[in-house]
Write a structure and sequence with these properties.
The protein is mainly α. It is built from eight helices and no strands. The longest helix has 22 residues.
Length: 198
Amino acid sequence: MVAVLSQDIQLEELRAGEPAAVARLHELLLKAARFEVARRRQSLPEVGGEELDDLAQQAAADAAVSVLRRLDDFRGESRFTTWAYKFALLEASAKMRRRAWRGRELPLEPESWAEFEHPAPTPAARAERSALLAAIQEGIETVLTPRQREVLVAIALNGVPLDVLAERLDSNRNALYKTLHDARRKLRAYLDERGFSP
């Protein structure tokens, strides 16, 4: 029995690497990538249509490679097009974030702890908040490894997208997720020891 994944795409043809099936898959993924690039276009006002289309083309090609590599993961719990679209959407959004950060300095140290100050309604609340911020800063500086500090500050405090940081640090998303998770766990334990509960 031939598994028909969509109107024009069959699983066996994709597994066999049939050029026509792969081309149809790429066409499907390009539509999704173009949609995502258009949706995020306002984040790159200085980028022209030709470069945006190139980003969509790259995202569709990378997504096609990922889909073909993971065909055995498709369980049929959703339509194939829905399953495949997510690859293109993820690739396109990652490429748009990377493009937005290209040429920008990567802040790895907190810009200013003062920006986390928030006027509290009472002097006691202000003092408590100030003590908490001081403890967080001390914990970041003392209990985290340099790598954990670098990753936590870049992602959590300075808003650097994970995939951009992974590319700049020559790492991968999973490794940075693990580093960020470990850093948060250590910082939480440090704060708990000092009587600061979430």
